Amino acid sequence: MTDQNIPLVEMKDISISFGGIHAVEKATIDLFPGEVVAVLGHNGAGKSTLIKILSGAYRRDGGDILINGEAAEIKNPRDAKKYGIETIYQTLAVADNVDAAANLYLGRELRTKWGTLDDVAMEANTREVMGRLNPNFRRFKEPVKALSGGQRQSVAIARAILFDARILIMDEPTAALGPQETAQVGDLIKQLKREGIGIFLISHDIHDVFDLADRVFVMKNGKVVGHARTQDVTKDEVLGMIILGKVPPGAVPGPGAMKVA
Amino acid sequence: MADMTHSTTPQASETTTTARPEGNPVARFFRATEIDTRMLGMIGALLIIWIGFHILTGGLFLTARNLWNLSVQTASVAVMATGMVLVIVTRNIDLSVGSILGFTGMIMGVLQAQYLPQLLGFDHPAIWAVALIGGIIVGGLIGTLHGVIIAFLSVPSFIVTLGGLLVWRGATWFVTSGQTVAPMNPSFRLMGGGAEGSIGETWSWVVGLIACLAIVAAIINARHQRKRFHFPRRPLWAEFVLAGLGFVTVIGAVMVANAYFWPINIARRYAEANGIAWPEGGLQIPHGIAIPVLMAIAVGIVMTFIATRLRFGRYVFAIGGNPEAAELAGIKTRWVTVKIFALMGVLCAIAAAISTARLNAATNAQGELDELYTIAAAVIGGTSLSGGMGTIAGAMLGALVMQSLQSGMVLLGIDTPFQRIVVGIVLVTAVWLDTVYRARAK
Fold this sequence. Notes:
The structure holds two protein chains of two kinds.
Chain A: E1 9-18, E2 21-31, E3 36-40, H1 47-55, E4 62-67, E5 70-71, H2 77-82, E6 85-88, H3 100-104, H4 119-133, H5 149-162, E7 167-171, H6 179-194, E8 198-203, H7 206-209, E9 215-220, E10 223-229, H8 235-244, E11 252-253
Parallel strand pairs in A: 3-8, 3-9, 6-7, 7-8
Antiparallel strand pairs in A: 1-2, 1-4, 4-5, 9-10, 10-11
Helix pairs in contact in A: 4-5
Chain B: H1 2-7, H2 25-33, H3 37-56, H4 64-89, H5 97-120, H6 127-152, H7 157-176, H8 186-189, H9 200-228, H10 236-258, H11 264-273, H12 291-309, H13 311-321, H14 323-328, H15 333-359, H16 370-380, H17 392-412, H18 416-441
């Protein structure tokens, strides 16, 4: 574990707009090692957009990203991966037509000394990682499209942890899953947390993430309403933040907080 | 073609290796050998076409001569179809291949007939190579231009290459103001086949032997790799069956090529030139495998290697499966697109070399409608227009199916308009059957 005073990730005053609409405006969030931070808000609140800036899918218009206290240049997904930022997308961004191993190593294939793909080695490592994550996973040779939602999710998660992620972003990680698989993902998050990985959980459903998270950030209309440690607030208070932008006494208000008249 | 059919087997669904003992003997056989049943269906269709035409033409189709000609006629479109697979797999299309073929063919023609003899001297031994390389560079540049417009200016490939179809056909005319360029350089002409452009009996056997050795090496290597990581292996008998099938195909192809003899007047001229006494009953000189066919097979092997063994190929298929996921995984999808179209341009130039050499002339109309035959070959060969699926060997087999249909109908004396009707119907039917097959496979 690194110094607890320096956040693993700090996004300061991040802004981005699409065609004149401020999708995210002056948003500031941070994440410490071994911490799970939930980013909550309605659909369209800007949480996914904010996090996609961190994962390199979008380029910010303004603001700074600090990784371990140092300014980071993240212009595309490759840059983000260099900083150890791995993302599991809501849409389960997997290539449907290739197998699990090809997906795990997509963009970072292992190669033999002749520069060709080392499929056998990739499959062997895949079998090992998947064995740890989801021992029931057997269908290594089939295109990912033949798999169930939970199995696809394990592929997406395995891809993220295979490369020693330090910062993991999970966008609606359990949206496509059944109850049993959701519990599995929960266990996995706790395990990764113990290993000192910082995790952002993005969700519009507070029940999915409240018990897993150490802190919550709430966004509304592109702005941060406020943030709080989950032990200091109740679910209802957080719901109030999501729906009304009303900041309870246990939380720290942000720029998007409802103005008290 | 045997080694090509083989090289796709690793792509075939291998889930079956976790040997489940149930199933009837036929299913068990396919599971053990891991033969792609889809590919097998195509070979079956091809055989039906061949035997059907053989009967209909009263024994004209399955002759050494016709099969040899068929292989040469297929070469040009087969070369382009290998590139079209990658284009279609990434959900693009290239309508300009016929026009690029025409343009690069004209460039190569002008280079070898007009500019290079002046520069290097008439009959300089390097003329053919310089002309070929020149054509390949031009083809690559045209493809790169298309790719850049598609990837970086976000113009749909359909439109860019539709424009290319018109532009390069027009540009072909401007190279010589519409004149046909002929004849080609004698060395260049070898790429078109014919008596001279074939490698003869001995070398055909050498090539056949190398192909057989390659099959054995590939099987042993695959087995070794699986052993290294304790993956399930094919049963030994299945390995022998596969090797045996490969041997039979290779040896059969070589025997057919060697059973087609030089036309009598060419043989006579050759005998006179070399001071060989004309024997009773004529001189029987086997053609052997034609050079354009060897070129096409070489292209097929290289393209299969690129598509299945290199990172580039993996990216092509990943982009086809889910462009967004590929981008998010950090793949430079735009550059991959540019490279695919550049490769397509290069392949068009190689196809142009084969076709101009065969015709012994570069004309304005060279390669007209070839884009449609190329696309049809790729699609009949199992390339899915919705992206992400397709094999090089399948596309080449598709080209062979298309050409078989055409030359069979020519042998039957069917008129060109009716030929087109048949080809069109076959294309639609083939894709429909494939759709049905895929729906069932799920």
